[in-house]
Amino acid sequence: MNSILYHRTSIRKYEDRPVEKEKILDILRAGMQAPSAGNQQPWEFYVVTDPQKIKALSSVSPYAGCAAGAKVVIVPVYRKQGLKFDEYAQIDMSIAQENIWLRTDELGLGGVWLGIAPLQERMDKVREVLQLPDTVEAFSLFPLGYPAEQKEQADRYDESRIHFVE
Fold first, then answer.
1. Residue 43 and residue 27: Cα distance in Å, rounded?
2. What are the residues facing 114 on neighbouring strands?
3. Going by fewer Cβ within 10 Å, which terminus of the chain is more open, N or C?
4. Which 3 state secondary structure label does DSSP give 21?
5. Is 141's pLDDT higher than 80?
6. Cα 145 from Cα 14, distance rounded (Å)
7. What percentage of the chain reaches a pLDDT higher than 70?
8. What percent of the chain has pLDDT over 90?
9. Average pLDDT of span 92-111
């Protein structure tokens, strides 16, 4: 199984070196390739490299502490207006986030998906840190960088969870 799907892991420790802008843009291009309900493409992305903002983001959730050591935090947000199917915006964002994570791994970087939505308190804290406009909602945090740790992905295949209806 050589697919990147079987390699991707949650990386929470990063080397002290910057991530090239070209790689960040490549990662975001992958995110924007995601399918979305009615092709609504609700996403926008904030790329945070300011160390003070990253430190502030690392405190918006009890699970976000690892973000403090990242050189980059991508903050995917979704628009609240002009969507065909607003009830599917967070699903669309999940697909984009997965694409971002897989491309990050393909480029030899590591990252971890930190959930923000649908918890309004966390979403509001991100809004405050980044001074987001009222027209968008924060979806997640994605700290990334050159990995300072290596992990093997666990085999999660469980045949007992497969049910054929024939």
1. 14
2. 141
3. C
4. helix
5. yes
6. 5
7. 98
8. 88
9. 96
Q: Which two tokens stand for residue 45?
A: 């992305």
Work out whether the CA dihedral 46, 124, 139, 63 comes out positive or negative.
Answer: positive
Do strands 110-111 and 72-79 pair parallel, antiparallel, or not at all (unpaired)?
unpaired
* Of 165, 157, 163, 153, residue with least CA distance to 8: 153
Q: Which two tokens stand for residue 28?
A: 């975001």
Q: Which amino acid is at 120?
A: Q
Q: How crowded is the C-beta side of 128, counted as CA atoms within 13 Å?
A: 10
Give the chain's domains with CATH numbers.
31-146 (3.40.109.10)
What pLDDT score was predicted for residue 148?
93
Helices (H), 41-160: 51-57, 89-106, 120-130
* Tokens linked to 119: 């918890």
Hey, what are 34's tokens?
Answer: 């995601």
